[in-house]
Design brief:
The chain has ten helices and 20 strands. It is an alpha+beta fold. A hairpin with a 7-residue loop joins strand 17 and strand 18.
């Protein structure tokens, strides 16, 4: 008879050990992955670790390699070089049929001649499960995606959003370890897309399934992902949380691709300043030397309006004058619902156009209108620098 053994946990000896003890173990590990088509290199030296239960978005413009990377993970288009481990199992050369994943395509890829129930049951039937068990699972999945009453219909009788829910139900029917989503929302109209992305995220959280989604929609990635993998020309530019990617871009490409930006040529000056349009502005210049030529970036949403004369504010109300305060003329205003997008010209910027997003309340409170001259602040910590040509 085998006796049960009591194993005492090994105490963590230091803070670093404690941190490592709580670090999620990797579920998917991609190492030194390359993909070439003749002389064209589609993926170059891709290495990425994904934890169990994470929701990851591959984000980038068309042709950046994000779908190629997804297909390599799925075994639909094998990599030229590199390894892929899933749950410590080397799947690098396995055919797609022997990999543990479910996939949802942009085109839904439902069988038009099968009912909704039959579509969902298709993968389950290939596992050899008893018919009552399959029927129970199909009913459970239809309820999960809110389409219990649609089981007897055919795909053509459903809306695009409903078809995508069915494609999702079919993909998770066999409880895969990995869920792959290839631009699943891009064929839907804007309102349905926003609604469905919340549903997908909630379902992923409920199931705890490790998920990778390919998208070129920045808002979609920011809203859904735990981490975003920004890709460009077959390489990974940056990996980070939505907040990190948006607030702390590591490259000019990431800053420009995620959200709107104003970009200005500049030259680094001593003492934490840069020169733009023959005027000095305060900013963080760490990593740059005096006289370095840079591109200065500030997002429209980070520009702060101060009305016509911020310098005249009573010292009791505002103890210190804002840094990087400039006079600007409002040339255009575009109402976008939750905010006004304004185009400004400012002598200190060398008459270059500056785009700023002001809240509806700020526009009303400061009486901002086309033709007005106001003062705006470019916060020191939000004026980002990148090497010219990066």
């Amino acid at each position: 008879m085998r006796h049960a053994m009591s194993i005492e946990p090994t105490p963590v000896s230091n803070a670093r050990g404690a941190e490592e003890a709580h670090t999620p173990s990797p579920y998917l590990e991609i190492t030194d992955l390359w993909k070439s088509y003749g002389d064209f290199v589609a993926l170059r030296d891709i290495s990425l670790t994904i934890a169990k239960g994470e929701f990851i978005c591959f984000l980038g413009p068309s042709g950046c390699g994000k779908t190629t990377l997804l297909r390599a993970i799925a075994g639909l288009d094998l990599q030229t070089h590199g390894t892929i481990l899933q749950g410590n199992r080397n799947i690098s050369t396995l055919p797609a049929s022997r990999r543990d994943y479910g996939i949802v395509f942009q085109s839904y890829a439902l069988f038009p001649n099968l009912t909704i129930e039959q579509n969902i049951a298709f993968g389950l039937e290939n596992t050899g499960r008893p018919k009552p068990e399959i029927a129970s699972r199909v009913a459970e999945l239809l309820a999960m995606v809110g389409l219990s009453a649609q089981g007897k219909k055919y795909p053509a009788q459903l809306s695009g959003g409903q078809q995508q829910r069915i494609a999702l139900a079919r993909a998770i029917a066999i409880s895969p370890g990995l869920l792959l989503l290839d631009e699943p929302l891009s064929a839907l109209d804007a309102k349905v897309r926003v609604h469905l992305r919340h549903e997908i995220k909630a379902l992923q959280r409920k199931l705890g399934v490790t998920t990778i989604m390919v998208t070129h929609d920045q808002e979609e990635a920011l809203a859904m992902a735990d981490r975003i993998v920004v890709m460009n020309h077959g390489v990974i530019e940056q990996v980070g949380s939505p907040t990190e990617i948006y607030r702390h871009p590591r490259t000019l490409f990431v800053a420009d691709f995620i959200g709107e930006t104003n970009q200005f040529p500049g030259k680094v000056l001593p003492d934490g300043q840069i020169e733009i349009g023959h005027s000095a502005f305060c900013c963080a210049t760490e990593g740059f030397a005096a006289d370095d030529i840079v591109t200065a970036v500030v997002r429209p949403v980070d520009i702060i309006p101060h009305g016509a004369d911020a310098h005249a504010v009573n010292a009791v109300d505002r103890p210190a004058t804002p840094q990087n305060l400039i006079d600007a003329e409002v040339r255009e205003m575009e109402f976008l619902g939750m905010f006004w997008r304004t185009r400004l010209t400012a002598p200190r910027l060398g008459e270059r156009s500056l785009v700023a997003d002001f809240s509806v309340n700020a526009v009303r409170r400061l009486s901002i209108e086309t033709g007005a001259v106001i003062q705006v602040e470019i916060p020191r910590e939000r004026l980002l620098l990148f090497p010219r040509g990066a």
